[in-house]
Specification:
Layout lengths: L1 H25 L2 H14 L3 H26 L3 H8 L3 H32 L3 H17 L3 H27 L3 H9 L8 H12 L3 H11 L9 H29 L1 E2 L2 E2 L1 H9 L3 H41 L4 H5 L1 H19 L2 H24 L5 H4 L7 H21 L9
Antiparallel strand pairs: 1-2
Length: about 425
């Protein structure tokens, strides 16, 4: 019985670890900056984007995690079995998107340090990258990452709850605008960016690949573990997204009227979300946000590097054998680029847009495999309704990408 209890606790820890690895990757610095910037710009109408993105995120990731769980294969291996060579295309896309995200993630750690203790951006980026490497290389690194992701996810939710109550947002107005957004045509580019930041590129594979590394997958009976884990992660990331939206909306409105001074302060700030928290809860809110951004940044740096290299390691045995050092190099390179280039705010918004362009390709690759018995096995039958909704999200993401491309430059204005 004791051994069974230990096994159950380990199983729960791994499932939660995978869920929070995905969630904290999705609620990294890009998510915090994007959501704050766009909420200040579009106000209550942005509720429409928030709800749409959460629903599309749930559909896309549940499909992908289910197929990975049934097959026991990584995303790129599934794509290669669908069409030889397609997996290598997916590897290139995910690694490029992961690198873009990771540069922004390191910048997010720097912004967190700056908000907490006033540290210079480039010094904060260097320290953040070094800290992520130390955590990853420490003894029992994977279990530490799992635990760290859970603790940091909890901290982020507590901080958001505190500031959400402090900012007193117009919840009723937000609910109305879910169904009646103003100027919906202007919301295409923000929706693509948030979708990419929620489940684009490496993020949608991060927790699923973590479960494969823990020995899960390859059996019909284990698909339920993958679904429980992914829905837990989406629940966490969706909750934080809604809370952050309400926090910033409360700051940028007085009752139901726009507060132009606060809107200008948030949209023009180098760290939009931190400025929103300062306006809502003073210096304490600003410092607490710094902690949340630091937490999100460190876990996202590790998650992006871990998942990007999990794609690369199937290319050659040398990469698989030296996985730890490739992950370390990935983090170090991302840190170096951030230290040299700077500009974390623009980098994290651009990263979301880039990964939004990748989503329809990665989701499409997986959906093409969902009925292939040579990939998912004889016993597993992927629900038709999930498949249909998955294709709708893939097509919608592709349409958003086409519609949003001309307007992406306006995200930086």
């Amino acid at each position: 019985m004791s051994n069974q209890n230990t096994a159950n606790k380990r199983s729960l820890s791994v499932l939660l670890g995978a869920a929070f690895l995905m969630a904290t990757s999705a609620i990294g610095p890009g998510f915090l900056t994007q959501t704050s910037q766009f909420t200040a710009k579009y106000l209550a109408s942005f509720a429409f984007v928030i709800v749409c993105v959460i629903l599309m995120d749930m559909i896309a990731q549940t499909n992908i995690w289910s197929i990975i769980g049934a097959s026991g294969l990584r995303g790129q291996e599934i794509a290669n079995r669908v069409l030889p060579g397609l997996g290598y295309v997916l590897i290139v896309l995910v690694v490029i998107g992961g690198l873009a995200f990771n540069i922004g993630n390191v910048g997010g750690v720097a912004l967190g340090f700056n908000a907490m203790v006033g540290l210079n951006e480039k010094l904060g980026a260097a320290l953040g990258g070094a800290l992520a490497i130390c955590i990853f290389l420490s003894k029992g690194g994977k279990s530490i990452v799992d635990r760290f992701a859970q603790i940091m996810g909890g901290i982020i939710i507590c901080v958001m709850l505190y500031v959400c109550f402090a900012s007193r947002p117009p919840v009723g107005q937000a609910v109305v605008h879910i169904f009646t957004p103003e100027n919906p045509g202007d919301l295409f580019a923000p929706m693509l960016t948030l979708l990419g930041g929620s489940c684009g590129g490496y993020i949608t594979f991060s927790g699923a690949h973590r479960l494969l590394d823990a020995g899960y997958g390859g059996k019909k009976s284990e698909v339920s573990h993958f679904r429980k884990s992914v829905l837990t992660g989406i629940g966490v990331s969706g909750t934080v997204r809604i809370l952050l939206f309400l926090c910033v909306l409360g700051v940028c409105t007085v009752g139901t009227v726009a507060n132009q001074a606060h809107i200008t302060a948030v949209t023009s700030a180098a760290n939009p979300a931190a400025e929103a928290f300062r306006l809502a809860a003073g210096t304490l809110g600003y410092k607490l946000f710094g902690l949340a951004l630091f937490a999100a940044g460190v876990t996202s740096v590790i998650g992006a590097a871990y998942t990007s290299v999990s794609f690369l390691k199937t290319v050659h045995p040398f990469i698989a054998k030296n996985e730890r050092w490739f992950i370390t190099g990935f983090i170090a390179f991302s840190t170096l680029v951030m230290v040299v280039l700077g500009g974390a705010k623009k980098m994290v918004i651009l990263a979301g847009a880039v990964n939004g362009l990748i989503l329809p390709i990665s989701l499409g690759c997986i959906l093409l495999a969902c009925r292939n018995k040579k990939i998912v096995g004889e016993e597993y039958k992927h629900p038709v309704w999930m498949q249909v909704l998955g294709w709708l999200v893939a097509l919608l993401a592709a349409w958003l990408a086409v519609k949003a491309l001309p307007g992406l430059k306006n995200l930086f204005i």
